[in-house]
Amino acid sequence: MPAAIILAAGEGRRMGGVAKSLLRINEELLITRLMAALHDAGVTEVLVVTGTHHDAIAAVVEPIGARVVRNPRPEDGQQSSVRLGLESAALSADAFLMVLCDQPLVNAADIQELLATFTAHPEYDFCVPVVNGERGNPVVVSRCAVEQILAMDRRIACREFMRQNPQAVWRHVTENEHFVTDLDTLSDLGAMAKRTGWAIEFPKG
Hints:
Layout: E1 2-8, E2 24-25, E3 28-29, H1 30-40, E4 45-50, H2 54-61, E5 67-70, H3 78-88, E6 95-100, H4 108-120, E7 126-131, E8 134-135, E9 139-142, H5 143-150, H6 158-164, E10 169-173, H7 186-196, E11 200-201
Parallel strand pairs: 1-4, 1-6, 4-5, 7-10
Antiparallel strand pairs: 2-3, 2-11, 6-9, 7-8, 7-9
């Protein structure tokens, strides 16, 4: 069975310093949408890596079954959160989904698509969606690769391991833009609301 690691440690600086995972889409928190999509895809073991907005995020996700680990230095970048997530995950899982907290279009079907593709290519340790030449997310990682990463220097996480081992990466070429759509800036929010008709609100409080 796969497990998921949701990366939610960022400050959200380009969004005005708000927790992007706590944006409300039609009254539903973005991170709970992602957790529901994972659950519907059969992924029930979820670890959330927090940082700047730890307390607010943990208060939402722990009551609905996620484990939480706090990155004490989120300013060190996303790969520090990836590494912490891998170190904290249960290695009994067959594979790990590395999930960004700000991808509002990713749904259960997308997750199942990635997992099915990963399973269909067992000779590869990574499955990375690629849309119009752009690398997307989530990324699926084998337990074998995680074990290798954890045996390496702590500065090494998935991105550097893939760079060093390109032969281990299956590029899942697709036209599915869900994998490359995220919410980084205020203009992204406006574009998403216009595209979908969704009501998107900042975190309350």
